[in-house]
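Page 42, continued from yesterday. The earlier attempt failed because a stray header line got pasted into the input along with the sequence. Redoing it now with the clean sequence only.
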Amino acid sequence: MRNAEIEQQRKHAPQTMYRNIEEITGKITFLSTGSIKAMNGDIIIDKEKILERWAEYIRELFKDDRKDHNIMKNNFAGPPIMKEEEETAIKKNKHGKATGPYNISVELIEALEDFGI
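This time it went through. C-alpha cells are written below.
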C-alpha cells in the first residue's frame, strides 16, 4: 500500500485507512476481549455468566447498607411565613427566568397580585 492510497482513504474512508494502517504496522487493537473477572478473580467467558456478573456488580454498586438516616418526613416545623416575606421574595425574583418544577412563572404570580399569594 502506498502513501497515495492511504491519503485517498484518509479523505474518503478514514475507517478503512485506520484498519489498513493497523494491518501494515501489526498493531491491531481490540475493543473487547469478551471476558470479565468474577468476584473471586476467575475469568468468565460464558455470555450468560458475564451478564449475571454484571447484574451482581450493579446490585453491589448501588446497595445501600446504611441504617435509616434521619430523613425529614413532612417535618416542616417553624413559624408561619408572613405575607410580607412572600411579597418581598416575589419582588426580588427576576423576570424572564425559567419556571420551576410547577411551571409557575414570576410574571404569573405578580399578575395574580394578592390572589396569587
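Notes: The chain has three domains: 1-31, 33-64, 83-116.
Reminder to self: strip header lines before submitting.
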